[in-house]
Structures are given as C-alpha cells and as structure tokens.
Design goal:
alpha/beta, Rossmann fold, Arc Repressor Mutant, subunit A, five-stranded parallel sheet, four-stranded antiparallel sheet, elongated, DNA-binding, WalR-like
Length: about 220
C-alpha cells in the first residue's frame, strides 16, 4: 500500500513515515499543502494521511481537490482540534476517516489498513497461492505450514504478487507500491529482493521472471 503523509510537524511526519515503512508500506511525505498537491499530480496513492491545519494550501482545500480529481486515494484527516463540529466539517469535505491528535499509532495503522482495503477490489483477509499463505494483519507468511520470516520489502513484494492473482507485476509497479518516490528507477533493488524472497520461500519456486516485462506467480500445482 502506498501512503502520502501530509504533516507540517516534521518530527511527527518522520515518526509516522518510519513506523509505516516498518509495516511494509510505501510512504512519501509532504510538509505543506502545495507540495502535497504536486505529489498527488505525479504519483498515485492508496491513502493520504492529511493534517487539516497545513501551511500554504489548507488541508481542507487539499481534501477537496483529492475528491474532485476522482482518484482512488482515500483520505484520513488528522487534526489537533477535538470539537465534533470540526470532525463533521472534515467528513463533509469528503474525508473517509478522521483521527484527532494525539492518537495511538496502532489505531492509525488499523484505520489505514481498513481504508487501503476500500481503495482496492475486495480480497480475502489471508492471501493464498498453492501452499503459501500471507496474513497482512499478522504480517506473517507461511509455506506448507512453516513460518517464513521476511523483511518489509520482501513481504511487500510477495503481497503485491499475491494480490495480482497470477497477473504480471512490472518492476516499475513494484517500485511504486513497495518502495517510495526516492527509489531509483534504474536500481536492482527489486531483482535483489526477488532473489532473497525466492531463497526464503524455497523450492519449488513460485515466482516466474518475464525478462523485460516483470514477475508473476507460477501456475498452482495440480
């Protein structure tokens, strides 16, 4: 899941970005409304964590433009104001959810995961392929009943392949959804991550490489 954190408190923004990346999310950060709108033009996000009281373009206006553009991004609005009227205003602007500061990080993660599911076609709570099972909520992967410890990037790559259901996933798409805006398009990070993932999952291999095209899961065993 790709997330844009729009928060002018830079310490809080760094904390959120680091914590969400540790949950295998791809995270970009903006500290004002103008920068957020620029990023929304050039990149696609599943969820935008949007502080309401932003410098430059106000968070309310950023929310209006996200909704007006008709994209798939869901909006989780943050505010230091706890008044019911402020929450109602934010929701009426088109925000999908609302969280007042201070907030519990685990609650933020749970709300983001729920919004991320709403931004995509419905999928089962546990993703499966052949004898592989990936549980996003528990962040666990198993093969033939054996737990397979994966890094955040390995977990994200496998989740993307499982979500694709056998369709080809390009290197560019993996960089967009598993890494972030700072990923070098010419890097070999995807190839190296795929190599480690294959090794950890073991034989027989369940990931096909299509040179110059991307990756996909192998056809399930009969």
């Amino acid at each position: 899941m790709r997330v844009l954190v729009v928060e002018d408190e830079q310490t809080l923004a760094r904390y959120l970005a680091q914590g969400l990346r540790e949950r295998a999310m791809s995270v970009d950060v903006a500290h004002d409304g103008d920068t957020a709108l620029d990023k929304l033009i050039t990149d696609c996000y599943d969820v935008v964590v949007l502080d309401r009281d932003l410098p430059g373009v106000h968070g309310d206006e950023v929310c209006r433009r996200i909704i007006a553009d008709g994209g798939r991004a869901r909006v989780l609005m943050l505010t230091a104001m706890a008044d019911v009227g402020d929450r109602v205003t934010g929701l009426r602007l088109g925000a999908d959810d609302y969280l007042g500061k201070p907030f519990d990080f685990e609650e933020l993660v749970a709300r983001l995961e729920a919004l991320g599911r709403r931004s995509q076609p419905a999928r089962p709570p546990v993703l499966r392929h052949d004898d592989i099972a990936l549980d996003p909520a528990q962040r666990q992967v198993s093969r033939a009943g054996r737990l397979v410890p994966l890094s955040n990037k390995e977990f994200g790559v496998l989740a993307a392949l499982l979500a694709a259901g056998g369709a080809v996933v390009s290197t560019e798409e993996l960089l967009r959804t598993v890494w972030d805006e700072h990923a070098d398009p010419f890097t070999n990070a995807v190839r190296m991550t795929m190599h480690r993932l294959r090794a950890k999952l073991g034989e027989p291999s369940v990931i096909d490489t299509l040179p110059g095209v991307g990756y996909r899961l192998t056809a399930p065993a009969c």
